[in-house]
Amino acid sequence: MRSTLVSYVLFAAMLIALAAVFLWVPTEKEMGIIQRIFYFHVPSAMSAFLAFFLVFIGSIQYLRTREEKWDRLALSAAELGVMFGLIVLITGPLWAKPVWGVYWRWEPRLTSMLITFTIYVAYLMVRDYGAQASQAPRLGAVMGILAFANVPLVYYAVDLWSADQQLHPPRNVGLEPTMEYAKWICYATFFLLLFHLVAQRMELARIESAVVRLRQKLDDA
Amino acid sequence: MDKDGEIVLTDAAKRFGAYTALHPTNLVISRGQAVLLVGANGAGKSTLLRLVAGLSRPSDGKVQINGHDLQDAPEARSAIGLLSHQTLLYDELTARENLRFFAQLYGLHNVQERLDEALAEARLDDRQHHRVSSFSRGMKQRLALARATLHRPSILLLDEPFTGLDTGSATALRQFLHLFRGNGGTCILVTHRLDEADGLVDRLLVLERGHLRLDQALSSDLDQLYAHCAPYLDSAL
Amino acid sequence: MSFIGRALAILRKDLQAEWRTKERLSPMVFFTLLVLLVFNFSFELGGAALREIGPGVLWSSYVFASLLGLGRSFADEHENDALDALLLAPGDHGAIYLGKMVGNLVFLLAIELLSLPFFALFFNLSLGFFLVPLLAVFVLGSACLASVGTLFAAMSNNMRLRELLLPLLLLPMILPALISCVAATKIVLANGHFTELLPHMQMLGVYAVVFTVLSLMLFEYAIEE
Q1: What is the DSSP letter of B205?
Q2: If both were cysteines, with which of A24, A134, C30, C133 could B16 make a disulfide (CB 3.0 to 4.6 Å apart)?
Q3: Is the CB of B90 less than 8 angstroms away from the CB of C225?
Q4: For chain C, which residues make up each domain, given as ranges?
Q5: Is B176 inside a domain boundary?
Q6: DSSP states along C36-64
Q7: Which residues on chain C are in Cβ contact (under 8 Å) with B86?
Q8: ipTM of the prediction
Q9: Are A155 and A166 in contact, with CB atoms under 8 Å apart?
Q10: Residue B9 — φ and ψ, nearest 5°?
């Protein structure tokens, strides 16, 4: 019931965000229409990092309490973090082609996102293929903590490596007020989408494990 | 034996994912008892043994050794010795090096004398500078026993210790166990072959599919053992 | 016995066993040489490109060799279930991690130093001048590899497909350290100034410390059952 309500709110928020991005915001002078991808690219990146932070929280809490719900949070957030990371890695080159002339440059922030993305893909793969069901939550928690600790180091190392390659605008660039408002609307919409999807995925994971447990009980009987 | 040697399980359970290896179990094994633990394959014998050893963490409930929770009091682990069908030794080190390493881990004093003594008891003093990889199965197991008891534990856990032993080494092990019990040590013996336990134990625990089905004092009589265990064991036995 | 004392006992035991068999060291050094050969034929390293890609080649071979070496670092413990005996010993299990980690660090350094002369020989590099700063880069870089590497080796030992999963776990995690290792080595070989080198060395130092401390804290969870 509550999740249906959230779905409606989310739908409305998305319509508002789309209207803001395509109807309301002025076209950027230098880059033209393509700059509007900014409103998807940057909030996706923020959502990805928020998701990775949730993995971190879920992992710590799982090791402390051993409650499965925390592991479900970590797993669900990791999957969605990877998905939002993928959106960043797709919208980035789409934006780069007309502006930088090529789809991909080993430019620091794109590179850092790619490395972070691979770390969490590895997290999901190891959970899926390597760990037995009984160890996956525990080993996943260890990985989830280490992975998040690595994120700032990835950014620092990549910045050192290719400071001269920096093509992104500096991190606190001033935006025109309408652009600023539209950005915040998009942030809010993306974060709401992230939380909604994480909640849905967690519920699915809960049902999955309940089914496994029922099946085990049937086998035992 | 200066330690208590008491094992207490309070609603201790172990699950691996959705699979329950040991259902909540209550059990008190007091100082000096010798317990025979039997059950079919997958009944939870090793799980129970590893819980008591602190090698496995209970999913629910508590396992206490001498009044300590092993997860909270890692020092309490020094009360335990474990002998299994695996040697728990390093093949590339010599007999003496193996024992010295574990003596260091346990922080023993007078290490040299203790090693001499342990190697003599294991009848390995003449081979002490040979690598374990050159040893026979019986010699390895004697060394494994020396390793397991180097720190003079008050609780000895034995997981199929007779597997693959020649008659001589098996007899030596039995003699040691008698001696250990005579000194007030507590032990849990897991074995498939009941004849090996004859005369060594005074209490029988039977596990079936992770449930403790039977808990009974024994007068160490082999026929009595068979009668109790038969319904719970693999037909092959 | 103190925490450090137990870690040292484990370190000494590992070095003793390795010294006796050299079953990790010899194949790994040879493997590093083979990787150098492969890179040579893939990139025509002899020419002017060497200064540009030489450090990358060197570190790539070290990383591949260390993946194999780290994967074996718990092999002795599993052969006869000796890990159970280690875990049964009293005291914090972090000591096991620390002993193993320092052992791996020594082992990686040995591989690097033993294969370095061949690198210099094959690629006509006179190293004498660079040796001290290069050694510093090796120590820090190996510490980075050993820090997460030892923890992941312990974790992957209980996994299915572990030969496949260790690289999958380790490679993305180690990338930031690898980036700095290559950059620092490049600066050293180009006879660059100390102030250029410093930020990379700091990066490696921070990485090694962060992941050694985290691994010490998490080791218990990584190996429990």
Answers
A1: E
A2: A134
A3: no
A4: 3-223
A5: yes
A6: HHHHHHHHTTTSTTHHHHHHHHHHHHHHH
A7: 80-81, 84
A8: 0.91
A9: no
A10: -105, 125
The answer to whether residue B14 is domain-embedded is: yes
A215 token code pair = 């099946």
Residues of chain A found within 8 Å of residue C172, distances taken between Cβ atoms = 115, 118-119, 121-122
Q: Which residue in chain A has the smallest CA separation from B18?
A: A213
C-alpha B4/C-alpha B154 separation (Å) is: 7
Q: Which domain holds residue B81?
A: 7-90+154-232
Domain count, chain B: 1
Residues B51 and B11: beta-carbon distance below 8 Å: no
How would you write the pLDDT of chain B (237 residues) with one tens digit per residue?
444 788 999 999 998 887 889 999 999 999 989 999 988 888 899 999 999 999 999 999 999 998 888 888 888 899 999 999 899 999 999 999 999 999 999 999 899 999 999 999 888 989 999 999 999 988 999 999 999 999 999 999 999 888 888 888 888 888 899 999 888 899 999 987 777 787 888 898 999 889 998 888 887 566 777 777 777 766 544
Domain presence at residue B106: no
Beta carbons of A99 and A49 less than 8 angstroms apart: no
Amino acid, single-letter form, for residue C130: F
pTM for the predicted model, two decimal places: 0.91
In a domain, B121, yes or no: no
Report the alpha-carbon distance of residue C210 to residue C196 in Å, rounded. Answer: 23
Closest C-alpha among B83, B143, B97 to residue B119: B143
